[in-house]
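To fix ideas, we close by showing one paired sequence and structure record:
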Amino acid sequence: MSWWSAVLPVLTLVLGWAGSELSEARRDKRAAALSRTERVATRLERAREQRENFERENLDAMFNAISRLGRATAVHHLADIDAAKATGRPYAGSVLSDKAMDEELRLATVEAGRLTLLVLDDHLRAQVDEAVASTQALGMTQSTIADANLAFQQVTTELRGAQRAIAQRLRELYKEEGTP
């Protein structure tokens, strides 16, 4: 028997073992890369879901805040109209003494302003900000009752437009989620 016959089985055993180890290392490396990719995808999906949940909750609160601001603005506007009619002065020419009404308008304005800052969509945030700002301008300058009513109608239109835009974005978010 030659030395080759004695070494060949050992050599094939060592080469087989090395090939098996190399193949297993490659398999482990691919599994680790796949696992890492799956973890990243899961983390990204979770972040997207959290962002959408935050956006939905904020837009829902913003929708309600605009309603509250609209009601408070309407109450204040009507009180200014009543004061103008009762005193004969121009609209916004009398100091209203109802502190609770003033406080509700102030709180509604602060809440709407705060939530506006959290709106993620730039275009929507600008539209909502403009609508909120329009309520603040109402009653700042003296005018006739007719002009005040026209200004109030404009404010109402802007608030409704902002609410429609918010509702549209909410529908889009739910549609992206796959719900009807």
User: Anything to note?
Assistant: The chain is about 85% helix and 0% strand. Helices lie at 3-87, 99-117, 122-137, 145-177. The CA atoms of residues 79 and 96 lie 8 Å apart.
